[in-house]
Known about the structure:
Order of helices and strands of chain A: EEEEEHEEEEEHEEHH
Structural class of chain B: alpha+beta
Strand order of the largest sheet of chain A: 3-4-10-5-8-7
Shape of chain A: elongated
Helix content of chain A: 10-25%
Order of helices and strands of chain B: HHEEHEEE
Oligomer: heterodimer
Amino acid sequence: xxxxxxxxxxxxxxxxxxxxxxxxxxxxxxxxxxxxxxxxxxxxxxxxxxxxxxxxxxxxxxxxxxxxxxxxxxxxxxxxxxxxxxxxxxxxxxxxxxxxxxxxxxxxxxxxxxxxxxxxxxxxxxxxxxxxxxxxxxxxxxxxxxxxxxxxxxxxxxxxxxxxxxxxxxxxxxxxxxxxxxxxxxxxxxxxx
Amino acid sequence: xxxxxxxxxxxxxxxxxxxxxxxxxxxxxxxxxxxxxxxxxxxxxxxxxxxxxxxxxxxxxxxxxxxxxxxxxxxxxxxxxx
Lengths: 193, 82
């Protein structure tokens, strides 16, 4: 699988969606180094769902038929309906932002239960950084390739807690609570004894 | 023109001869055309590039030569109807 240099993609929603979808271009596989752009196979647009529950990318039989994809091998797939052997196809993927992924191996399925034509599986998700945030109940998905950093909310939280502790201590320094007259009297009595 | 033997026949050839092929090509990526091995490679990318440059899509099978039990199963937790 070949990927073009650093690219990113963001999908924003006005609310909280049931799934993260985006439009992708799909074509028969070709080598961009040896195929001039004028001779590259036609590209068709399809609706793709980002799915961390799929170990590899899946296309419906509709996509296979429309693009006339040819199988290159077979693999065993395990879904909710059990295990079976399915054809594996090669295709090229094109994202709206210009990111392109060549020679993606995909398996075919009859259909997807929630609609859509493709599932972008962990084989695609794991070539880059993938995030979903939901600030103000508005979902934002962002994806970039290649991976550039680790996002760790626990580490960030621990660092923030530590910073708060230090700032709190500093702000309390020199502001010792003044003793009341009653406390001073009691202390004097204690000292006399 | 080369006779086109579809993927099922090339796959059956691989399954029937798996134990023999394992002795010679274990872990390698094989390019199988017309029921014979025409290329063996250390990486899948190289096998795909070789097959794409030399044969028409649909006329070849690419298969990693592994014992059946070591083959990877692709898992789908939702959505997919096979």
